[in-house]
Design brief:
The chain is α/β, with parallel strands linked by helices and 350 residues long. It has helices spanning 11-22, 55-61, 83-102, 140-158, 181-190, 207-220, 236-247, 258-275, 283-288, 298-304, 311-324; strands at 2-6, 26-31, 46-49, 65-70, 107-111, 163-168, 170-172, 196-197, 201-206, 226-229, 232-235, 254-255. The protein has a domain at 2-172 and 206-231 and 295-309: Rossmann fold. It has a seven-stranded parallel sheet, sandwiched between helices. The protein has a three-stranded mixed sheet with strand order 7-9-11. Helix 1 (11-22) packs across helix 6 (207-220), helix 3 (83-102) packs parallel to helix 4 (140-158) and helix 5 (181-190) packs across helix 11. The radius of gyration is 20 Å and the shape is globular.
Amino acid sequence: MTTLITGATGFVGSHVARLLAARGHQVRALVRSPGRSNALDGIPCERVTGDLTDPPSLERALRGVRRVFHVAADYRLWARDPAEIYRSNVEGTRNLISIAVAAGVERIVYTSTVATVAVPVENGHLPDESTEARFEQMIGHYKRSKFIAEREVMEAAREGAPVVIVNPTAPVGPGDWKPTPTGRIVLDFLKGRMPAFVDTGLNVVAVEDVAAGHLLAADRGKPGERYILGGRNMTLEEILTELAWITGRTAPRIRLPHAVALAAAWTDTAVCRLLRREPHIPLDGVRMARHRMFVDSSKAERELGFKAGPIAAALERAVRWYQTRDAVRGNAASSAHPEQPVAGSTMRAA
């Protein structure tokens, strides 16, 4: 049985590809640039060149495919041309779903985001899959594009498309080469670039568990249903404390008011606009940080059998991965031996 994966060269997608291959599946990876597919090294799979905005390439990629994992997304909190984000995340998803259905694919797993769920609620309960978010609650073009795309996927499911939706929270672990915003927290901590923090929070989950959740959704998920693949709700301060425990470094103690962080983001954005480069402090990221993105992910546990492992261990795997790749060259954190885990670090609570 051939399984197509989009986004297989990315963080989550490469872990999905690796897990499928390890379980004996015939994996086909859709890649835009064959020269930039290092994340697939060591994973037995067929690589086909294509693009979500190029329907003929998708038709070729889907020949003989029975299952699809649509993991690809343009995940940027800033873009010089925001229309690119919508082309990839909305138009690209629309193309893939329609062509996959026409090709007779038996199951599609669409990777959405917890951002379409994790919005402030008034009843005091944590948001879950039943939460009805509104478009105006989506901050930034990435969230808006994923909100629109998810609604289109749900409509396709109502029309008979065999598509299941998964909503990963903030994955962490090895292989986050880009990195994602969660990986950026780890890397900035290792490089000593985080002298202060803001009062925010997110749900953190091991990337390996997210990959396993994708396979569970393919096997047990109901078409048209959403499943949050989450782990532990943590404040940013708690995450930094765990990183301090793992590395032996000191966690920042200065809590930065949101107003100060927002002012810094505005200044950084204005300067970078003049220099025509990407801001180091994304304005949308600071705006998002005003709300703790805590969620209830128990539905996936009940209906899929999803189980998240310890977050401290996942953070340690991320730390060791960056250290072994010298991602923190010239920093004291890189001098630790990655093969020697810090005593007790993996024994912390999940």
